[in-house]
Amino acid sequence: MGDARETMDRMTRAMMSQDRAAMAACYAEDAVATSPDQGEIRGRDAIGSYLSQMAEAFPDARYEPLEQHEAGNVAIDEGYFTGTNTGQIQMPQGESLPPTGRELRLRTCDVARVESGLIISHHFYWDQLEFMGQMGLLPESKPGAP
Which of 77, 88, 118, 138 could tie 28 with a disulfide, CB 3.0–4.6 Å? Predict the structure, then answer.
């Protein structure tokens, strides 16, 4: 196992244990993350805050890995993020949504570039429409409606 894989595994363990300090410590001071819901997130503290908000929204979060790869200084994880939404969900414009109480099982992919044991670039991928649908945040369509 190389440095990239070890760093990604350490970040995943920190996320699942909701250890904010350990999550942030996986990232370089000037790291950049990109997510479907927030876009670009710059800096260790901002990324740590983003991950902590997700952990607070889904305190029973679990990660079920399907594939784990490493190529040079890049680690790639594909799997399912699961949990129950019992905390507020932070929205991109700053507002928050109250807990829905719904269970989430969302297929995800993470690509992290690592240098000197720290993540410098992290791309989070998931289907935002699927997320919103599972959380009950989409308007219901009427039968027979186009």
Answer: 118
Instruction: State both tokens at 136.
Output: 């009950």
| Number of residues written out for the chain | 146
For residues 63 and 54, the answer to whether their CB atoms sit within 8 Å is no
Q: What is the pLDDT of residues 119-145, one digit of tens each?
A: 999 999 999 999 999 999 888 755 665
Residue 117 lies in a domain: yes
CATH at 66: 3.10.450.50
- The phi and psi torsions of 116 (rounded to 5 degrees) equal 55, 40
Q: Which two tokens stand for residue 54?
A: 């997700």
Q: What is the DSSP string of 75-91?
A: EEEEEEEEEE--SPEEP
Contacts of residue 66, defined as CB under 8 A and 6 or more positions apart, other chains included, come to: 78, 79, 80
CA 138 to chain centre: 21
Query: What are residue 103's DSSP bridge partners?
Result: 84
